[in-house]
TrEMBL record:
It comes from Roseibium aggregatum. The lineage of its organism: Bacteria, Pseudomonadati, Pseudomonadota, Alphaproteobacteria, Hyphomicrobiales. This is Carbon monoxide dehydrogenase medium chain. InterPro entries: CO_DH_flav_C, CO_DH_flav_C_dom_sf, Diverse_Substr_Oxidored, FAD-bd_PCMH, FAD-bd_PCMH-like_sf, FAD-bd_PCMH_sub1, FAD-bd_PCMH_sub2, Mopterin_DH_FAD-bd. The keyword Oxidoreductase applies. It is an enzyme of class 1 (oxidoreductase). Keywords: FAD, Flavoprotein, Oxidoreductase. Pfam families: CO_deh_flav_C, FAD_binding_5. Its EC number is 1.2.99.2.
Length: 288
């Protein structure tokens, strides 16, 4: 289908973009890669009268290391995440996850900012950002504020982002050197959204888990930070009984829809299977 009519805006600064959003209220939407928004417009599930293209804002591009925290500006594409040497050395789970998103054509254009701001439970980056305890930087008419990824998602397509705000950057604390990581995603075919996926970052000391962070994708209306599961594993040697308890705790917080990806019970179980695999892979990659 063809989208409804809209006015196209191309601001060159965040302040200009925010001013356009303020003047048009609910009728305006930011446009990043357009790989979620334009399909929704073609289906007439979204019909913004004003599109505010962020592509001309130089301040929204780039990845930097601020000493212990990596800042990724919102318009950084998924392809640029994959190509970044800095991320490969400090946050390799971002590359691993990005490679599981859609296909190369979409990753050349789709952005990190669009992926996390979208609020679609099927997007892979939100759970990863919860796992990494990232913070989102939001710019609006009253200036800048920061919201933890773990507090950002309210329901499917509802987030803490106000209509006149732009997500400008994602800040991620760098996990300790030698940490283990894995993003395990079950999908029906290449390019598909997750039936269920699990993100794990952990550290080992003397063969025991000293820290473990877990989050799940597409098994509820929002990404799920599985805090209890991570806490169960802390101090353990990832023995079978403790892993089973952690997996059960993670499965217990899921609430997936029954849809073309399978019945709810199946998707809950697959979240558990993805978590088990991610834990084993993360442990095998961690230095003790
Ligand atoms: P856009 O589509 O431009 O925007 C998405 C939404 O976020 C819009 O509501 C927009 O107004 C808002 N927005 C965008 N940027 C900002 C900002 N900076 N501040 C505030 N609001 C903003 N994604 C996955 O994670 N996993 C997949 O497996 C996957 N498979 C896909 C398969 C196909 C066939 C397609 C078409 C897409 C797929 N995607 C998948 C989605 C893709 O990754 C999108 O690019 C991404 O979700 C949105 O990023 P975008 O830059 O295209 O954002």
């Amino acid at each position: 289908m063809i989208p409804g009519a809209f006015t196209y805006h191309r601001p060159s600064s965040v302040a200009e973009a925010v001013a356009i959003l303020v003047s048009h209220g609910d009728e305006a939407r930011p446009l990043s890669g357009g790989h979620s928004l334009i399909p929704m417009m073609k289906l007439r599930m979204a019909a913004p009268e004003h599109l505010v293209d962020l592509a001309g804002i130089a301040d929204l591009k780039g990845i930097s290391d601020d000493g212990g925290t990596i800042t990724i500006r919102a318009m950084t594409t998924q392809h640029e995440l994959i190509a970044s040497d800095l991320l490969a050395s400090k946050l390799p789970i971002i590359r691993e996850t990005s490679l599981l998103i859609a296909d190369p054509q979409i990753r050349y254009v789709g952005t990190l900012g669009g992926n996390v701001a979208n609020g679609d439970p099927g997007n892979d980056m939100p759970a990863l950002m919860q796992c990494l305890d990232a913070t989102y930087v939001l710019s609006g008419p009253d200036g800048e504020r920061e919201v933890p990824a773990r507090d950002f998602y309210e329901a499917a397509y509802f987030t803490a982002l106000a209509p006149e705000e732009i997500l400008t950057a994602v800040r991620i604390p760098v996990p300790p050197a030698g940490h283990g990581y894995a993003y395990e995603k079950l999908k029906r075919k290449v390019g598909d959204y997750a039936t269920a996926a699990a993100s794990v970052v952990l550290t080992l000391e003397g063969g025991s888990v000293s820290f473990c962070s877990i989050a799940l994708t597409n098994v509820a209306d929002t990404p799920l930070f599985a805090q209890e599961a991570g806490e169960i594993l802390a101090g353990s040697t990832l023995d079978t009984a403790t892993v089973a308890r952690a997996v059960a705790a993670a499965e217990a917080i899921t609430e997936p829809a029954s849809d073309g990806r399978g019945p709810a019970e199946y998707r809950t179980k697959m979240a558990g299977v993805m978590l088990q695999r991610a834990l084993a892979k993360a442990a095998s990659r961690a230095s003790s």
